[in-house]
Amino acid sequence: MKKMGKQSGVAADYSALHELVKPHIDSFDYMVDKGLEEIFRSIKPVQVFDSFENKKLRIFLDKPEIFKPLRGGSKGMSEALLPFECRQAKISYTAKFTADVLLQYDDGPPIRESINFGQFPIMLRSKLCHFRNASPQKLVSCKEEASEMGGYFILNGLERVVRLLILPKQNYPMSMVRNSFRDRREGYTDKAVVIRCVRGDQSSVTVKLYYLRNGTARLGFWIQGREYLLPVGIVLKALVDTTDREIYANLTCCYSEKYKKGKGIVGTHLIGERAKIILDEVRDLSLFTHIQCLQHIGEHFQAVMQGLENENYSVVADAVLRAYIFVHLDNNYDKFNLLIFMVQKLFSLIDQTSVPDNPDSLQNQDVLLPGHLITIYLKEKLEDWLQKAIKSLEDEINNKNNKFNIRDVNNVKKVIEKGSTQISLAVENMLKTGRLVTQTGLDMQQRAGYTVQAERLNFLRFISFFRSVHRGASFAGLRTTSVRKLLPESWGFLCPVHTPDGEPCGLLNHMTCTCRVASYYDSQGNMRDFLKVRTSILDVLIGVGMTSSLPKLILAGPPVVLPVLLDGRVVGVIPTSEVEKVVAYLRRLKVSTASLIPDDLEVGYVPLSMGGAYPGLYLFTSPSRFIRPVKNISLPPEESQNIELIGPFEQVFMEIKCPDGGDGGTSNDFPATHEEIHPTGMLSVVANLTPWSDHNQSPRNMYQCQMGKQTMAFSSQAIQFRADQKLYHLQTPQSPIVRTSAYTKYSMDEYPTGTNAIVAVLAYTGYDMEDAMILNKSSVERGMCHGQIYQTETIDLSEMGRSSQGKRIFKRNNDDKSLHSLIDSDGLPYIGQMIHPNEPYCSFVNKVTNSKFTSKRKGTEPVYVDYVAVDTKNKDDLEKVNIRFRHPRNPVIGDKFSSRHGQKGVCSQLWPDIDMPFSGITGMRPDLIINPHAFPSRMTIAMLLESVAAKGGSLFGEFMDATPFGENGSKSQSLVDELGEMLKIKGFNYHGVEVLYSGVYGTELSCEIFIGPVYYQRLRHMVSDKYQVRSTGRVDQVTRQPIKGRKVGGGIRFGEMERDAMLAHGAAYLLHDRLHTCSDYHIADVCALCGSILTTSFIQQQKHAAREIGGLPPGRAPKKVICHACQTNRGMETVAMPYVFRYLAAELAAMNIKMSLQLSNATGT
Amino acid sequence: MEGVSYQRFPKIKIREVKDDYMKFELRETDASMANALRRVMIAEVPTIAIDLVEIEVNSSVLNDEFIAHRLGLIPLTSERAMSMRFSRDCDACDGDGQCEFCSVEFHLRAKCLTDQTLDVTSKDLYSSDHTVVPVDFSDSAGYDVPEQRGIIIVKLRRGQELRLRAIARKGIGKDHAKWSPAATVTFMYEPEIHINEDLMETLTSEEKRSWVESSPTKVFEFNHETQQVAVVDAEAYTYDEEVIKKAEAMGKPGLVEIHAKEDSFIFTVETTGAIKASQLVLNAIEVLKQKLDSVRLSEDTVEADDQFGELGAHLRGG
């Protein structure tokens, strides 16, 4: 049955909400738990040599620690700093970040010195936040919302979220075709194999393997903003001490003459020739041995490798290989094997035995998480700081004048400490502005746009910030639309409905409600030990028949065996005949709790195909992959719940059926092994709230996702303790009668967004045409859709006018009694006071000069003072004050409303109750009338269903379940029948229509009217914030035309197209009025002799004195104008013209162009 | 239609009267009359409602306007309303509304001193005039719930306080819905139902029953013993034409004929409690009369004739 029953009084469960922000919090926790240590370990120690003292000083870092946020910053006070204080005081939620710096002289014991890195921003509800695992009660007592989920930072009082960003899949060699590769250098083709290698500390280095037209390949990698290209042969030889024969055998292992054309053949006969070319290339450079190759690399890279200037070539080469080539691997044999694999994949791409991977598909993508971004940024900042410290140490040593002694630890520490607090500040600034200030680029595609402000316009908008995934700013400017395409690979991970219309369409996606991100923590919340995980996976694989790759061992290639890659490491090969069994076995181990195999292991089995994707078994355990739960139905059902977490890479090759029925077009040859848990899992949280969205035309659901996020709703429960710039608030919200299961799951009742309005669908009086709607004035008067805007002004006396003349304090000016009605004796307004435009609302006095100031209210409408918050940190005087104003925003004509089905409309008329049509039986009058024409073209059937269902629900006093794709009862009865039957039981028409009588005439309307309750939302676009009107007002200084801008009382541009319309109507007089008379009408004096309008000037007449004595009013003296050029007033004429014309003449004169006017009926000539 | 209006003498037959509910028949008049009565009942019968609120202390969670709005919507007993003056026409106080002829003062003082939330309700409003008090629903409704004491204005937690002075004035629903005395006023045309017995006889009893059941409301009844279909409650008919459609679907058009009587209306009136339902009807008729009087008394000038045409002459006793 569709009924959901009455609402239970059980305390709300917010765990589903917390799950939504988990990727953010988990990644930050990782940074705190492990990331910091990890980067400290990977930062290379720096050293400085003092040639006078002959001492070497090695500096490295250890023991990073971030504390919990405390009040009073670093000054010993131990009181907890709470987020609400940060919001109100406009400060940042930060905590102390310290570490030990170790100073090691020569090879002596290191000396430990603690160093302060400043105040580090803390993510809410992360491990370092005071609210970690806080109960709703505690949150409320700390002036937060009971459902506070965290996941964001508070910086200068603003809540900022790090945007999730799409990155290329880590540690997976991707074959790509891109025209830009061709432009690298002469001889390059557009094909390459690219791998983004990620270290344990999440920093990454992308390596590209380009194919050259002559059959060889080049390995390209970036060092300090420059790409370096090495012949692949040199790298192969430099990695491992090997022979040409071995390289040849390795490269050609995937081809055998036995194979002809068949399934899964990737190698062709060309591969042998290419291998020869690769080897010849190295030989031509006369590099034969491992050592020679290392020397070659070292020689070329010494200049760019910092700190290795004095080392020998092979050390430099080792460093290059370690730091730039396949950084996710630390064993050179593994690197060798991976490079061989990549070359094979590249050749197979060239020979078209496999297709390129699509970099726009989610299959080949990962996600960048906030904690990881901060980690890599912090690493770079620390490295920079160490370099800087070394530089300044060297400067001090070389500076002969001062008595700097390197042996003195305090001396050294003082030099090092310089700028150490800037490190946290750099991170804070990165989060504040979303801009990476970096030299290397951190292997990222973009520099800016990493963070956004999490507006709490309403809860849906707020939650969407955490679920949104951006494709990358660099794609926004792209003219091609292929990146914006909705690909089937993103099924279940990204919501197909919830993407904005217009500019960011398809680039800004939202995760589905079931989508998660793999993290460093397992389901119990324990840190994962990836080393252990990998060894256990290897054990399992070897146990099921994998031949593991060992040094010097040459393995066969597809189609006989499939290579197995575990996190970008070629671990072995598996016979093709066994692989399906192995995959199934691995999946079973994934699901079972007993095994060490993690539940989110991605088993990407790419089967053999005829020129499809390059085959192999790709296993991924790494974090920051998308994952989602599905049911594994191939396992016996008794084994737990059989919920398996799958990733987008493996999903493509899996058979997952959807329980909404049908086989989805799959044939019986491939029986489904998995099943979706519920079809609604493919929708985002916001899209899941649209009732019966499966009955709507799909664009309407997209519109609703947008509109749901701009609804004026119950934005926050802790509104009293917030100081947001602008907050929209609905005064009388209601819980929707018709709701989806997601509504209950995510406790949306905490933040309701609308009103159950009785909606009649009819054309009444014509005021509802073209998406306009009529509101019932009486309903509005009874409180429907009432709301207000809260706006906070912060007055910080320490910031404004940092004058030398003394401090300002809040104080009322007691001389001026007129202020007393507005401002209290403390200089602040009374709470509840109404303040009109241009009235002062707070006053302050300069302590020394005793000069008084007031802040005046701007704007055009009266407001109420809602709340005054003072900063009591400063004991003696108030310095900072937040004053919150309340703008009443009750519905007026011109306000925008919408249902939950993308049906928006503007209120065009407020009819009183008596004029509304009424039902003869119940006396019901609609709250809202919309036009029937809103339906045929838009096909929002769900809105009609909602109306009928809500009518039934309210008659039975129960909430109605409108979950899309819902199982439709057992009786195979259609939804409409079920709903209609409910109405019939209660004596209403089966179809939801009623006979209405005209409110004006009392006569029966000629047809039956569809009427019922529909949940209506009030959108934040309101006329009161938008209307623009002016008669006369300010004009532009230069052109004397009216200025633009609503705030400054400007006009609306009457532009060229408007002009065209006027001309087309022949409304010449109106046009003249608009463009000239009402704009920059000007009467200019023109000299008809020389035709100039610039050379005229007035001559002052001296006769004034005499006239005034005569007691006569000083009549307007006839203006005497002469032309400077002609030195006469003979030809003076007055001509009406736009003032800009005069301006044009002046501008032209400045360029030595004279503009002369010819007057047609001039008298002077 | 018939066009010419002629003087008629409408009749009212009261069927049911409760304090806040009334059902009556209005006969021998036309829709314009019935609708005028309905509109007047909703929008033009005066009541008293709080119109001006001076808030002294408000530390509750609701803002001042919200509380003022809620106070305004509380129905006040308004028997006196007809005899009161509109504050705008009051000569005793220059129209700013603070005299006994046009206004009633209320005080509300509430502070929560315990840990339990305190409900501030309409019962906490103290009136300066004992005839104008918040409507008490507890006895009339029948279901007397102990915790339901009046209409909740706001809830206070420990330490919160609400102190205010409110002035109630006379007003009409046209100005603001809070002055509307009617919760619901509706009328329907009385239906006239004729079953074509001859056709009905051609139906089987099964068909008869399904036909009877096709109406969502119980208009007809199928008597199992006599196998006859009879009209049991004509007024339950909602003009949904379900039965007619059903008859057509059964291939028996004309099985039943239903007409709305053009001159007979059944009114249902529900009040907010401000005045009694019976009083509402009487007051409405009074107001309607006054309105007609004002038209009649408006100078029989050419403009008036232009404005009302034939009706003007009619009103003047034609």
Automatic annotation (TrEMBL), chain A:
Report any one BP term from Gene Ontology. Answer: megagametogenesis
Keyword set includes Nucleotidyltransferase: yes
Catalytically driven reaction(s): RNA(n) + a ribonucleoside 5'-triphosphate = RNA(n+1) + diphosphate
E.C. number(s) listed in UniProt = 2.7.7.6
Q: Which InterPro entries match?
A: DNA-dir_RNA_pol_su2 (IPR015712), DNA-dir_RNAP_su2_dom (IPR007120), DNA-dir_RNAP_su2_hyb_sf (IPR037033), RNA_pol_bsu_CS (IPR007121), RNA_pol_bsu_protrusion (IPR007644), RNA_pol_Rpb2_2 (IPR007642), RNA_pol_Rpb2_2_sf (IPR037034), RNA_pol_Rpb2_3 (IPR007645)
Q: Where is the RNA polymerase beta subunit protrusion domain?
A: 19-415
Q: Is Disulfide bond found in the keyword set?
A: no
Ranges of residues in domain DNA-directed RNA polymerase subunit 2 hybrid-binding: 686-1047
**Could you tell me the superkingdom of the organism this chain comes from?**
Eukaryota
Query: Mind telling me which GO cellular component terms the entry cites?
Result: DNA-directed RNA polymerase complex; nucleus
One GO MF term: DNA binding
Its top-level enzyme class, in one word, is transferase
Known Pfam families for this protein?
Answer: RNA_pol_Rpa2_4, RNA_pol_Rpb2_1, RNA_pol_Rpb2_2, RNA_pol_Rpb2_3, RNA_pol_Rpb2_6, RNA_pol_Rpb2_7
Q: Provide the alphabetized UniProt keywords.
A: DNA-directed RNA polymerase, Metal-binding, Nucleotidyltransferase, Nucleus, Transcription, Transferase, Zinc, Zinc-finger
Question: Which segments constitute the DNA-directed RNA polymerase I subunit RPA2 domain?
Answer: 571-628
Positions of the RNA polymerase Rpb2 domain: 195-367, 454-517, 1050-1158
Subcellular location as annotated: Nucleus
Its annotated function is as follows: DNA-dependent RNA polymerase catalyzes the transcription of DNA into RNA using the four ribonucleoside triphosphates as substrates. Essential for the completion of the three rounds of mitosis in female megaspores required for the development of mature gametophytes.
What family does this belong to?
A: Belongs to the RNA polymerase beta chain family.
Q: What is this protein called?
A: DNA-directed RNA polymerase subunit beta
TrEMBL record, chain B:
What's the superkingdom here?
A: Eukaryota
Protein's UniProt keywords contain Transcription: yes
Q: Which UniProt keywords apply?
A: Acetylation, DNA-directed RNA polymerase, Nucleus, Transcription
Describe the location of the DNA-directed RNA polymerase RpoA/D/Rpb3-type domain by residue ranges: 21-298
One GO molecular-function entry: protein dimerization activity
Q: Where in the cell is it found?
A: Nucleus
- Cellular component per GO? RNA polymerase II, core complex; RNA polymerase IV complex; RNA polymerase V complex
Pfam families annotated for this entry?
RNA_pol_A_bac (PF01000), RNA_pol_L (PF01193)
Sequence similarity? Belongs to the archaeal Rpo3/eukaryotic RPB3 RNA polymerase subunit family.
Please give the name of this protein: RNA_pol_A_bac domain-containing protein/RNA_pol_L domain-containing protein
